[in-house]
Fold this sequence. Notes:
Layout: E1 21-23, E2 36-38, E3 46-48, E4 52-54, H1 60-74, H2 83-86
Antiparallel strand pairs: 1-2, 3-4
Amino acid sequence: MPALMTAILDSVLDTIGHTPMVRLSRIGRDLPCELLGEALRKTHGLTIDGLGEVEVHVAPRHVEQALELLARVDAGEMQIEDWAEADGDAP
């Protein structure tokens, strides 16, 4: 039996992309291929000040970029505009 992931990680970002795959042999026994399932587990997300709790389903670099942008907004270096209004899609 393969070893389960037992490492203690330093960051929630280190968990991204390491979802275990499970062979669904009983469900797929009559299929001409191997049927696999992704063993998702309930995560409580990541809490970011001002945004509340968000689930992390993106690449680690995307999370890092978002946090960098939030830091720039907090520092007053950036202005956020409503994209819908900027594109003329506002109701």
